[in-house]
Every structure is written in C-alpha cells, then in structure tokens.
Amino acid sequence: MKQNKIYGLLGLAAKGRNLVSGEYAVEKAVKEGRAALVIVARDASGNTGKKFEDKCSYYGTPVLTYGTKEELGHAVGLQERAAIALLDEGLARTITRYLDELQD
After folding, report:
1. What are the residues whose beta carbons fall under 8 Å from the beta carbon of 31, sequence distance 6 or more?
2. Which of 60, 80, 81, 95 has the most CB atoms around it within 10 Å of its CB?
3. Domains present along the chain, CATH in parentheses
4. What is the residue-level pLDDT of the chain in tens, covering all 104 positions?
5. What's 34-65 look like in SS3?
6. Angle at 65 between CA 41 and CA 49, to 5 degrees
7. pTM value?
C-alpha cells in the first residue's frame, strides 16, 4: 500500500518537474544544492551506490536506497533509472516518512 503511494508521489513529482533522473542529472542537482532527496535503486551497481552515498554525504543531501531500476523508471514514466533526485522539500519529506514506515 505505502509502496504504491511512494511510486505515485514519484510520478507526480516527475509530472510537476520536481524530479530529475539519471546519474548525470542527479549528480548535477546534488552539486548545485537543488536535490532534497536522492533515491538509488537497490539493484544499481555497487559503484553507483557508493558514488551517490559519497556525493550526498559531502553535499549534505539525504540519500535512500529503494526499489529497482525498473520500478523507479516506470514510476517516473521512463526506462530504467538507477538514481532519481527529488527537488521539492515537501515531497521529499513525505516520501522519507513513507519509507521509514515501511521499514518499521
């Protein structure tokens, strides 16, 4: 149930242009301080996961691991995506809360 809401919110963010996807665009958003939350797919390569963990840690951006590349891509209406960045603080907080509830 919560998973559907998370993917729905990601789709909403994509439609509202409050989300960027793909490694290059996400990295750029983090460096520019525009990313409110980065989500990395569970099945992303180890190098990709480490790169975003390090980059987000350096720039003070929250980063979470969730879903698969296929699921993240489908949620935002694109092909597989290893990483996405939410640009809207409110959506980022809501998705973080849902993810925390899923892990409890």
Report:
1. 55, 59
2. 81
3. 2-103 (3.30.1330.30)
4. 667 889 999 999 999 999 999 999 999 999 999 999 999 999 999 999 999 999 999 999 999 999 999 999 999 999 999 999 999 999 999 999 998 887 76
5. CCCEEEECCCCCHHHHHHHHHHHHHHCCCEEE
6. 70
7. 0.94
